Amino acid sequence: MYRDMLVELYDKNIIEKNFNSSVFLENLLLSDHIHPKELEIDKKQTLIEAGVHNENIYFIRRGIVSSSLGFMGKGRFLGLDTLVMNDKSLCTIQTIEPCELYVFEKLEVMEYLFSLQEGWLFLYLIEKEERNLLLKNHSFLTLKGLERIEAVLIDLAQDFGIREDDMIVLPKSFSKKLIAEYANLSVNTITILIKELKKDHFLKTRTANNLFYINGSKVPMK
């Protein structure tokens, strides 16, 4: 609440331009006091475990991870939520496909932020992104089955989809089982709903390779 009041003293556009994740990453990489490492990691690997103190901050260069907040991809920081108070992580974060990451020591990042007069604004914007992600995912649960799976697939298509002609294809890491868990629906229910979505021409029938092909006209620009 206090930070929200402070932010009102700043111009919103200036904050989003000068204190976003890209600027934060650039500053960290340019700092002589920060010693990042590059990491390539396979799918189904745990980066951060719930209930455990984490000593690292991660930045996703390529790939997708999952947590109770939802799915996060290229350009997202992981682990900053426990930076200031050094709390135990509230959620487990796991890769769902091979990822390329920058790894930063938490202590170095904390010291760097504390050396900046307005360093807290970086944390504020990143925390805001995570809060919006959580609220969005909770909003899916207020929808009924068919509406819910439509909303989930549209959201995933906007964030991670690859356009192929008139279709948007989800990466193969988004299996039916994974999407069922994310939408809080059973695999059997998802299977039934997929048939309905094909009838409505929301999903294309091209599913020989088990990928989700979504009708591009059904996905609004984000």
From TrEMBL:
UniProt keyword annotations, A-Z: Activator
Ranges where the Cyclic nucleotide-binding domain occurs: 30-113
Keyword Nucleus: no
Any Pfam family hit: cNMP_binding
PROSITE patterns (alphabetical): CNMP_BINDING_3
InterPro entries: cNMP-bd_dom (IPR000595), cNMP-bd_dom_sf (IPR018490), RmlC-like_jellyroll (IPR014710), WH-like_DNA-bd_sf (IPR036388), WH_DNA-bd_sf (IPR036390)
UniProt-listed Gene3D superfamilies: Jelly Rolls, Winged helix-like DNA-binding domain superfamily/Winged helix DNA-binding domain
Designated name of the protein: Crp/Fnr family transcriptional regulator
